[in-house]
Amino acid sequence: MYVFYLLFNLKKIITFEKLFLLFSMDIEGNSMDITVTAIHMDIKDSVKEYAEDKLGGIDKFYNGAQSIEVILKSDDKKIHCEAIIHVKKRGTVVVDVARDEVFEAIDVASEKCERQMRRLKEKNEARRHDGIDEIEE
Q: Do β-strands 33-39 and 91-99 pair in parallel, antiparallel, or remain unpaired?
């Protein structure tokens, strides 16, 4: 009730669609989906939350990340952590890491994802600025 009172006091006309989109977003404004799955192994909720926390900050390096799939696989001796990031208008970024422990694999995969997303952002910004330099000359 307070929200509608505030909206009418501001004398702004907001359509129902805009109002729905406003309230459907998360509090942080982050609408990125993160899914964690395990193949040939059982994972605890703490491992799942750790992976979501570590890879949830990828969005700050490049705003085009739409969703992240984290796949944890158990091999004979190693744990594989595969992260697939779906990027808006750029395709996918795939990282595959094999380590002895689950948390170590998630940490290294997170660092590699950050590096690749940062590189993608720099490449995108360089592409924009190259066109501006040619116009100025």
A: unpaired
